[in-house]
Amino acid sequence: MPQVQAIVSNGQGYYQLTQINVGLPAADEVQIRLKASGICHTDWDSIQHWNKHFVVGHEGAGIVSAVGEHVSRVEVGDHVILNWAIPCGQCFQCAEGNLHLCANHSPVCGCGLKGHAHAAACQHDTRPLERSFHLGTMSEMTVVKEAAVVKIPKEIPFPTAAIIGCGVMTGWGSVVNAAQLKAGSSACVIGCGGVGLNVIQASKVSGARMIIAIDITQERLDQATRFGATHGIIADKNDPDFRQVTAQVKQLTDGLGADYAFECTAIPALGAAPLALIRHAGTAVQVSGIEQRIEFDCQLFEWDKKYINPLYGMCNPQRDFPRILSQYQQGDLKLDELVSHTYSLSTLSQGFDDLIHGRIAKGVVVFD
C-alpha cells in the first residue's frame, strides 16, 4: 500500500500535510498519481464546515498508475482529468442524461451534505479516510471510479487540465449547457473570479455581442476585459439590491435589461441580483452554489423571467471535457492564463490566503 503526502482536514477549520496510505484499485477503479490540484473556495469551505476527517481537494489531473481488472477506458500511463460528476449509468437521472445528478454517486446526495463521500480508499493511522467529492486531489495519489476520469492528450499542461475539472466546467457549462446562450445576445456576469471569468469566456465563444462584467474593483474588471468582457460596471458594496448596477445595465441595453445574467459570487445577498438585470423573458443563472435561505421579491420574476440553479454546469464529463479542451487548443479559451500562481502542498496556506483575499484568478498545487 503506497504511502504518500496529502492534505487532511478535520472539517472544523484545521488541516495538515501528513502521510496517508493509498490502496490498490478495485475492479472498477483507477489509481492516479496526481500532478496538479486546483485550489477552490469550496475546498476552503469544506475545511471550515464539513465536521469530519477527509482528504481535501476536488480538482485534479495526473497519470494513471494502476487500473482494476474491469477498467477499459484508460490504461497505465494515460494522462487524465478527474471529475466529481461520477455517473453510475443505471439510476433514473443517469438514464435521463443528467449524469451530474446521479442518485448513487453524486457527492451532493440525499443527505444534503455537499462533498459527502460514501467510500474510503485511503488510510491515516490505519483509519479509513473519506475523500472530498470522492476524489481527494490534494494528495500525491488517489483511487477513484473509472467514471471519474477522462483521458486527455499528453501535451495538455497538468495545471491547466486540473482546473477544467470544476472551476472551468462550472462556468463554461452554466453558459453552454444550462443557459444555452444564443449568439448575438447580451449577458451580465456578477463576480469576476475564477468561475466568473469562465462564464465570460464561454459567453464570448457562444457569440454574445455584449458581455457586461460586474465586480467591486477596477482591477477585477480589467481582468475580465482580458477574458472577453465588452463592458464593466463597478458595484457598490452598500447597494445589495443592485439598484445602481441595474440602472447602468438598462442604460447599456436600451432600457430592456440583459438577455442573460449569471451570479458567480456565492454571496447570499446577491442571490436575486441576476433577476434584476435581465429583460422580460430573460434568463437568470445562479452559478455559484448559494445554499443559504434567501428571500425573493416576486416582482423580479415579472414577466416570464426564468431563474435556474444548475449543478456543476450540467456536466457530462466524457462529452464536455473534450469540447472544452478543443476550444482551448484552438485558442478560443484562455486556460493557461487563468492559473495565476502555483504552489506546493507545503505552501498551500499561502494559496488559500491568496484565494480568500482575491489576489489570484486561480491557484494550483503542483506536485513534483
What does this structure look like?
The chain is α/β, with parallel strands linked by helices. The protein folds into two domains: 3-155 and 335-366, Alpha-Beta Complex (Quinone Oxidoreductase, Chain A, domain 1), CATH 3.90.180.10; 171-311, Rossmann fold (3-Layer(aba) Sandwich). It contains nine helices and 18 strands. Strands 3, 5, 6, 9, 10, 17 and 18 form a seven-stranded mixed β-sheet that branches. Strands 13-12-11-14-15-16 form a six-stranded parallel β-sheet, sandwiched between helices. Strand 7 and strand 8 (127-131) form a beta hairpin. Helix 3 packs across helix 4 and helix 3 (158-179) crosses helix 8. The longest helix is centred in the middle third of the chain and has 22 residues, at 158-179. The radius of gyration is 20 Å and the shape is globular. It starts with a strand and ends with a strand.
> Any idea what the CATH architecture of the largest domain is?
Alpha-Beta Complex
Strand content: 25-35%
From the spread of the alpha carbons, the general shape counts as: globular
Main beta sheet: 7 strands, mixed
State the helix count.
9
